[in-house]
């Protein structure tokens, strides 16, 4: 069974009892871990309980091909339903999962924790097509999804973000669900009670560590500094940053450039155009941003945005290596910037 959209949250909160195996996969590893933990807690109070939780790896199944079936059929010495979690699940374990689904013994909930799986993945196809299994994709919290998360977390503490504060949060929280929640929890603690969260509150509390590398990349690309852009991109990949998140960050930067350059064409000065942006441009890079405004025209920015959007769609739909397609788009835009002479 394939789950999407709002059905995922409803399922995670209350899994269908007929589902015996759940594949949780995607590029947002923080969200994968969070959903695995929530699913475990629908069965056991303590995910570390050795009597009711079995933690397996692909190497365990390689050493003992029947291990998954045996663990799922085992009874807890202390009573109650068991959970079997298989970490780092990939296509190599698909035959073992298929054997478990066909075996039918035991009432354990089997949780398959995986990374980003393409549409052609055998494990993904198995769980999407089985009546007693489910597949839950986990993609980065972006756009409306991220805004909803921010509103929910702040709202539960009696807080609401001002428009400027929300804009800052959406561009500085990064894309990893666990990091996002950690930063929001810190903001809630900082506020210490009900009220409105201002831009000053957010700037004083929320760290830039999740977005710093992305900002470095965006400025290097828009400056036409391809060598620096590739070095920063390599660092982001090593840190586990999702290529789609990289492309979305670049799109946001060029959208802001588009707004600023358009404001100048409407008669505003460069300072006025930059001051009109929300969230505001960080003062340390304001002069650099103005330099990019002089370099880029509205038509050129439109071409860059088209290229970045096309790269994002390719990452999501072609099944080709997303990191390579993202790197190619970064290089193309940076070279275009380097070729501009204003």
TrEMBL record:
Key word Electron transport present: no
UniProt GO cellular component terms: DNA polymerase III complex
Reactions catalysed: DNA(n) + a 2'-deoxyribonucleoside 5'-triphosphate = DNA(n+1) + diphosphate
Keywords tagged on the record: DNA replication, DNA-directed DNA polymerase, Nucleotidyltransferase, Transferase
EC number, UniProt record: 2.7.7.7
InterPro entries per UniProt: DNA_pol3_clamp-load_cplx_C, DNA_polIII_delta, P-loop_NTPase
One of the GO biological process terms: DNA-templated DNA replication
Gene Ontology molecular function: any one: DNA-directed DNA polymerase activity
PANTHER family (UniProt xref): DNA POLYMERASE III SUBUNIT DELTA
Family label: Belongs to the DNA polymerase HolA subunit family.
Protein name, per record: DNA-directed DNA polymerase
Organism: Caenispirillum bisanense
């Amino acid at each position: 069974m394939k789950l999407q959209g709002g059905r995922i949250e409803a399922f995670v909160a209350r899994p269908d009892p007929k589902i015996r195996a759940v594949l949780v996969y995607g590029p947002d590893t923080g969200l994968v871990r969070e959903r695995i933990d929530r699913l475990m807690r629908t069965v056991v109070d303590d995910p570390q309980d050795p009597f009711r939780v079995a933690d397996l790896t692909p190497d365990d199944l390689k050493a003992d091909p029947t291990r998954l079936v045996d663990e799922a059929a085992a009874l807890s010495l202390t009573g109650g339903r068991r959970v079997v979690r298989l970490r780092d699940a990939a296509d190599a374990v698909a035959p073992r999962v298929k054997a478990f689904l066909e075996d039918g013994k035991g009432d354990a909930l089997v949780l398959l924790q995986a990374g980003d799986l393409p549409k052609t993945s055998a494990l993904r196809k198995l769980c999407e097509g089985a009546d007693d299994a489910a597949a839950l994709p986990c993609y980065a919290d972006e756009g409306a999804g991220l805004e909803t998360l921010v509103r929910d977390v702040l709202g539960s503490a009696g807080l609401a973000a001002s428009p400027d504060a929300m804009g800052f949060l959406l561009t500085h929280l990064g894309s990893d669900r666990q990091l996002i929640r950690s930063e929001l929890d810190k903001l809630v603690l900082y506020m210490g009670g009900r009220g409105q969260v201002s831009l000053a509150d957010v700037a004083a509390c929320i760290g830039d560590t999740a977005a710093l590398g992305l900002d470095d990349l965006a400025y290097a690309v828009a400056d036409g500094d391809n060598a620096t852009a590739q070095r920063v991109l390599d660092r982001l990949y090593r840190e586990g940053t999702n290529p789609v998140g990289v492309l979305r960050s670049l799109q946001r930067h060029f959208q802001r450039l588009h707004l600023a350059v358009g404001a100048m064409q409407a008669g505003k000065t460069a300072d006025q155009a930059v001051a009109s942006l929300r969230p505001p441009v960080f003062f340390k890079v304001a002069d650099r941003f103005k330099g990019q405004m002089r370099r880029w025209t509205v038509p050129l920015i439109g071409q860059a945005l088209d290229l970045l959007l096309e790269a994002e769609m390719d990452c999501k739909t072609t099944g080709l290596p997303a990191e390579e397609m993202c790197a190619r788009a970064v290089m193309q835009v940076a070279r275009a910037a380097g070729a501009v002479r204003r």
